[in-house]
Design brief:
Elements (H helix, E strand, L loop, with lengths): L1 E3 L8 H11 L5 E3 L11 H4 L7 E4 L12 E4 L7 H8 L8 E5 L7 H7 L8 E3 L1 E2 L24 E3 L2 E3 L9 E5 L4 H8 L4 E6 L3 E4 L3 H16 L2 E6 L7 H14 L3 E5 L6 H4 L7 E5 L16 E2 L1 H8 L13 H4 L19 E2 L6 E2 L10 E5 L2 E6 L30 E2 L2 E2 H14 L1
Parallel strand pairs: 1-2, 1-3, 3-4, 5-6, 5-10, 10-11, 13-14, 13-15, 15-16
Antiparallel strand pairs: 7-9, 8-9, 11-12, 17-18, 19-20, 21-22
Helix pairs in contact: 6-9, 7-9
Length: about 425
């Protein structure tokens, strides 16, 4: 059995491992460093010892690993149930409400459900945190589990819930502060989204800044000529399908791509790939790089690539930041057009340059002027010039020469200025 701890809990790992060895017949191993993010189950490291199971401690993204059983030991955060119920009274008559929550609050959800009055639960759907393939807790009075079905009608980011018949939720409340909140905030459109914290209460959230960030990255994807596909997971299901999907989108737009696997992405590692204009991260939804300003090149997700290179996908479609939902077989999959773009370029809103035109070996730019529009037929996009000077740094350096003699004296009269003044006086005489 492998024990996976985040860095903050590693000092307690030895005590836990010794306790398990003493009270069971299992052999335990401590995973000292995760291959990717600490929220993901490190299946790669567990294979080095042929582990039969993994016990994951701390915050988890719950992405799921189909090849090995996992037991999650989730953190327990403070949450005042009575205070939440009192503040929740203001939403009682405001329509259908969905309650989502941080993984650190999940241990109190059953107690919260029992403490709430039946009047408050009439229009409330309390999502279930899915840590195993089976769904056990009904989310509301009309839950599919109560009618004999095996799962909820909808599941997003390991939260299961049943949606209202024929319509969306009116209000969504997220209790907690983890990264899943931003994923739900972008996905839940045309609803009032509130974040609940014990100190500030219910705070109305605005997703405009997230859409602005994504729109900027979409323009970066369109303008990029060389794309690096970062493999940031080897355990999440369908990650190979996601890589092939990005390859297909790049080929349609005649963009170069490299598949890169280097463990945890850091600015120092990615800076070595100077020929790459942009990186696409194939990772769990909580490994977000939007706030990583130290990276030399932008790092985007599969959703940004879809919106940039798939002409059939728009902001009006249903989408998710989980790549499993965007690839073929996913609930939000939209197939790109069968025919490749015809080479008509567009001007980037970021760099103000023309991009999206077709490559030809002729090396010429043919512009046909048509009434009301200009069609760009052919353009040659060359590689960046690369020059290697060898091991001698002075190979192409300019020839050395003696330094020129500088001026001597003070600002009121340098020596060379006195000579010039003397020559001018003699000429006047």
């Amino acid at each position: 059995v492998c024990l996976q701890f985040p860095d903050s809990l590693l000092p307690d790992s030895v005590e836990v491992a010794l306790y398990i060895d003493e009270h069971t017949s299992n052999k335990t191993y401590i995973l000292g460093d995760t291959s990717y993010g600490s929220c993901c189950v490190d299946e790669v490291a567990s294979k080095h010892v042929n582990a039969d199971a993994i016990i994951h401690f701390g915050h988890a993204c719950l992405s799921g690993t189909p090849n090995i059983p996992v037991l999650y030991v989730l953190p327990k955060k403070g949450f005042n149930i009575q205070q939440f119920i009192i503040r929740f009274e203001q939403f009682r008559t405001k329509g259908d409400i969905l309650l989502l929550y941080d993984v650190g609050v999940s241990y109190l959800i059953s107690k919260l459900n029992d403490s709430m009055a039946d009047v408050l639960k009439e229009s409330l759907v309390i999502s279930e945190l899915i840590t195993s393939p089976s769904h056990n807790s009904p989310c509301c009075t009309r839950c599919k589990l109560l009618s004999g079905e095996s799962k909820h009608s909808s599941s997003r980011f390991s939260r299961g819930f049943c949606e209202p018949d024929g319509k969306n939720f009116d209000i969504v409340i997220y209790a907690g502060t983890d990264k899943s909140m931003t994923n739900f905030l972008m996905m839940m459109k045309n609803v009032q989204f509130y974040q609940y914290t014990g100190n500030e209460g219910f705070v109305l959230m605005n997703s405009l800044s997230l859409y602005k960030q994504s729109s900027f990255l979409i323009e970066k994807v369109k303008a990029a000529q060389t794309i690096g596909i970062l493999v940031c997971t080897l355990a999440v299901e369908h990650f190979l399908v996601a890589i092939e999907h990005v390859k297909t989108l790049c080929k349609r737009r005649q963009k170069k791509f490299y598949v890169i696997s280097l463990g945890k992405p850091t600015p120092a590692k990615l800076a070595n790939f100077t020929e790459v204009d942009l990186f696409v991260s194939i990772s769990c939804p909580e490994m977000d790089f939007y706030d990583r300003k130290t990276f030399l090149q932008p790092v985007v997700g599969l959703l940004d690539v879809e919106l940039a290179l798939n002409e059939n996908r728009t902001w009006d479609n249903s989408f998710s930041k989980d790549f499993k939902d965007l690839v073929q077989g996913g609930r939000d999959y939209i197939a790109p057009p069968e025919e490749s773009p015809d080479g008509i370029g567009e001007v980037s809103l970021v760099s103000n340059r023309l991009h999206g035109v077709s490559n030809t070996p002729s090396g010429c730019l043919d512009v046909e002027i048509v009434p009301e529009k200009i069609l760009v037929d052919k353009v040659l996009v060359t590689d960046r010039e690369r020059v290697w000077d060898g091991l001698n740094p002075n190979l192409n350096a300019p020839d050395l020469r003696k330094p020129d003699k500088g001026r001597i004296g003070t600002a009121e009269g340098y020596t060379n200025e006195k000579d010039i003044l003397k020559d001018n006086t003699q000429e006047e005489e």
